[in-house]
Design a protein that fits this description.
This protein is mainly alpha-helical. It has five helices and two strands, in the order ααββααα. The radius of gyration is 20 Å and the shape is extended.
């Protein structure tokens, strides 16, 4: 990225931070609480075990859920930042695949 684009991006981010009342200290504090590394996990147990949310649910989480604990209790605060946006206003009544095996497929 050239210097001009970088400076423009910084100006834009500072403006948006001001719009939302986010100070550089707020941002630094948040980033300091995030663990480093490519797989930070999405859920964490009290013992420090983590799970990304993909693949088989780990035993510690299965046990907690079966004991009545909500999975959201274990969700890390930054996990919501990585969730894809969902459309709640989708109208499925005219979906040509509704009820078909394709609609029930778990493949993405």
């Amino acid at each position: 990225m050239d210097e001009r684009k970088r400076d423009s991006m910084i100006a834009y981010l500072r403006h948006r931070m001001d719009d939302f009342g986010i100070s550089p200290d707020d941002l630094a504090s948040f980033l300091a609480t995030r663990p480093a590394g490519p797989d930070m996990g999405r859920y964490r147990s009290a013992g420090g075990d983590t799970w990304s949310g993909e693949g088989e649910t780990p035993q510690w989480l299965k046990q907690a859920i079966s004991a009545g604990q909500s999975i959201r209790h274990f969700e890390l605060p930054w996990a919501a930042l990585t969730e894809p946006a969902t459309r709640s206003d989708a109208d499925w009544k005219d979906d040509p695949f509704a009820g078909s095996p394709l609609a029930r497929s778990n493949h993405r």
